[in-house]
Design a protein that fits this description.
The complex is a heterodimer of chains A (256) and B (360). Chain A has helices at 41-48, 71-77, 93-98, 111-123, 139-152, 169-186, 197-203, 221-224, 227-234, and strands at 3-11, 16-25, 30-34, 56-61, 64-65, 78-81, 157-161, 189-193, 206-211, 214-219, 236-243, 246-254. By secondary structure, chain A is an alpha/beta fold. Chain A has a single domain (3-83, 155-254), classed as Rossmann fold. In chain A, strand 11 (236-243) and strand 12 (246-254) form a beta hairpin. The A-B interface holds A 46, 49-51, 71-72, 74-76, 78-82, 85-92, 94-96, 99-100, 102-103, 106-108, 114, 118, 121-122, 127, 130-131, 133, 135-136, 146, 149-150, 153, 159 and B 13, 16-17, 19-21, 23-24, 27, 106-107, 110, 237, 239-241, 243-248, 250-251, 253-258, 296, 300-302, 304, 357-359.
């Protein structure tokens, strides 16, 4: 197991956000995190990358407790694309992607760092934007740039918080396809939170359904996205159909 | 057929790759050229400025004095070596330092309004100067007391902000708001001291408040140069991490940057740098705010290049303004802070209107 989270608990002064979260992420696995707003999907991801510190429980990456790692070592193991990021001052797409090499070089990029950036730009089809300012790009293109930045970090684990929720369907498919092909080629593990249950079902190997800060169900979409689970967690009546071994959802109406 | 088209795509991809690599190299070279360009501009302005002044000397006489050194002790020698040269060098040092500090403050706090003024550093220095002038009421204020007070009180606002961040997370918003709080607090202290001071003391304090290079001497140039040599390299060292802060705190953390520590460190470096310069000249604050913005418009946001370019731009701006300030109404001189704002304000507005990229 590449990532092991055990009995994790996180809360602010008076509210508990995550309770007894235990989960695993295997090599070359794409794990989809689904659940209603406020279920704790983003909080779980941020705890794993130590953006926030859980009060209880342990997080092991390749058997090492994440708490004992330096921030640079952690950045070599885990990459993360936060939700709704923006760039404060203008930078080019090339320089933005180069930032992902931060854990690998100190102050001035070496030839191999620049080569890595070129690889990613080529893979994500971003070459024509390389010298453009990131603020001039559309939301879908920006998301691909941030994904490229996280990928040049060359971490084994990639955490993506809602990477496609602001994108049109074409960009959604493009971004998710890139993620799948990277996983296939380089064997990294990806944990991706995603609102669209059908995309989650189609592009992930396994789902983690969260509800009120706990793991409600985990497994293949055929066992997680069931009529009863959706009714209980989302409060929605839905028609569930199966296609190619995966469950797909047609939401009907909110439960009275 | 299939193989040949696959080879064709591969070759195309390779060409594209080389194109991107080349254009990135070109971009870097262009940025380096800007650094050289503005360095040369500073030298040219300095060359002109040294030939201008109220003591009547021909250009060739000025340069022969410079090359012969301070040997003959004539009035001409002294006006060049003890008045013009230290004043020109101080203008370059202060302009460079304030612009470099402003660049990194804005970067680290991700706030286009951050500058020595908005964070209370200048207000602290102005209060310190007013206090020194008040304490020396009537008598001629000792240079050491004035500079010492200004330097000491310039550090206070930042240390109070640092203290606050021990209890609250050092987010840019907290730090900027705390800085503005300090600005008003020290503004009030200064008002109070001036209220009980005599009119002549108040006038001296006002001149310090807008900034002047009229008191420039080698005794100021040397410490100012030391401050610059010590702290600008530290800013350069943190420039790459500050670039990454621009990507947002969570993203920066995930790339291995300790955001809170970086921010606090940059604040400390810029504060000491700023305090070490404005204690000699008074609060020439506008340079620190505006130069980084002007330079970002043609340089982009990479602080590794922005620091030197903004630095030389700031030096050129302050030196140019001061040369005008001491020549138009010679033998009197207008406080340079006023002229800087008069020149840079409209320039900034014109650039805002004519810029092409989406910024601000």
């Amino acid at each position: 197991m590449r990532l092991k989270v055990k009995d994790m608990e996180f809360g602010y002064a008076s509210v508990t956000i995550l309770k007894n979260v235990t989960m695993e992420l295997a090599e070359s696995e794409v794990l989809g995190v689904v659940g209603p707003n406020g279920a704790g999907k983003s909080t779980l991801i941020r705890c794993i990358d130590r953006i926030i510190s859980p009060q209880k429980g342990s997080i092991l990456v390749d058997g090492t407790d994440i708490k004992t790692m330096s921030s640079t070592d952690r950045a070599k193991k885990i990459g993360y694309v936060p939700q709704g990021v923006s760039q404060a001052f203008p930078t080019t797409v090339f320089d933005t992607v180069l930032m992902g090499r931060r854990p690998h070089f100190g102050w001035w990029s070496r030839k191999e760092d620049n080569e890595k950036v070129l690889d990613m730009l080529e893979m994500l089809n971003l070459e024509q934007f390389a010298m453009r300012g990131i603020n001039e790009l559309s939301g879908g293109q920006q998301q691909k740039v941030f994904l490229a930045r996280a990928l040049t970090q060359e971490a084994d684990i990639l955490l993506l918080d809602e990477p496609v929720s602001a994108l049109d369907i074409r960009h959604q498919l493009e971004v998710l396809n890139v993620i799948r092909s990277v996983v296939k080629e380089s064997g990294i593990s990806v944990m991706i939170s995603i609102h669209d249950l059908n995309l989650a079902s189609r592009f992930t190997d396994r789902l983690l359904l969260m509800y009120n800060g706990t793991v409600f169900a985990t497994g293949p979409s055929s066992s997680v996205l069931t009529h009863d689970n959706i009714k209980q967690v989302y409060g929605v009546e839905a028609n569930v159909s199966m296609h190619g071994g995966r469950n797909y959802i047609a939401p009907d109406k909110p439960v009275e | 057929m299939a193989t040949s088209s696959a080879v064709g795509t591969k070759a195309k991809a390779k060409i594209k790759r080389i194109e991107v690599a080349e254009s990135y190299k070109k971009l870097i070279r262009r940025k380096i050229n800007y650094i050289i360009l503005f360095f040369v501009i500073v030298l040219i302005i300095a060359g002109i400025a040294v030939a201008l002044g109220c003591f009547p000397l021909s250009v060739s006489a000025v340069y022969s004095i410079i090359f012969h050194g301070l040997s003959t002790q004539t009035l001409g020698d002294e006006s060049i070596w003890l008045l013009r040269l230290p004043r020109i060098i101080l203008a370059i040092l202060v302009g460079f330092g304030l612009a470099a500090a402003g660049t990194m403050m804005q970067g680290a706090l991700k706030n286009p309004l951050a500058s020595p003024f908005t964070l209370g550093i200048a207000a602290g220095a102005a209060f310190g100067a007013s206090l020194a002038l008040f304490l020396a009421e009537g008598a001629v204020v000792s240079e050491y007391l004035l500079v010492g007070c200004a330097f000491f009180f310039a550090l206070i606002p930042t240390f109070i902000i640092m203290l606050l961040t021990r209890f609250r997370r050092a987010t840019p918003e907290t730090m900027v708001l705390a800085g503005i709080g300090m600005l008003y607090l020290f503004g009030a202290f200064q008002g109070l001291v001036q209220f009980i001071s005599s009119p002549t003391t108040v006038q001296a304090a006002v001149i310090f408040g807008v900034g002047t290079l009229a008191r420039a001497s080698w005794l100021q140039v040397i410490p100012a140069a030391i401050v610059l040599i010590c702290f600008v390299p530290l800013l350069m060292w943190k420039a790459w991490d500050v670039n990454i802060l621009g990507a947002g705190d969570e993203a920066a953390e995930s790339m291995g940057v300790n955001t809170a520590r970086t921010r606090v460190l940059v604040m400390l470096i810029t504060t000491i740098l700023t305090a070490g310069l404005v204690c000699f000249t008074g609060t020439i604050g506008f340079i620190g705010l505006i130069t980084p913005h002007i330079c970002r418009m043609f340089m982009g946001g990479d602080n590794r290049f922005l620091i030197p370019v903004a630095g030389f731009f700031g030096a050129a701006l302050l030196l140019g303004a001061d040369t005008v300030a001491r020549t138009v109404v010679a033998p009197e001189s207008i406080p340079v802070g006023i002229l800087v704002s008069l020149i840079a304000g409209p320039l900034f507005l014109i650039m805002l209107l004519s810029k092409k990229g989406g910024y601000l």
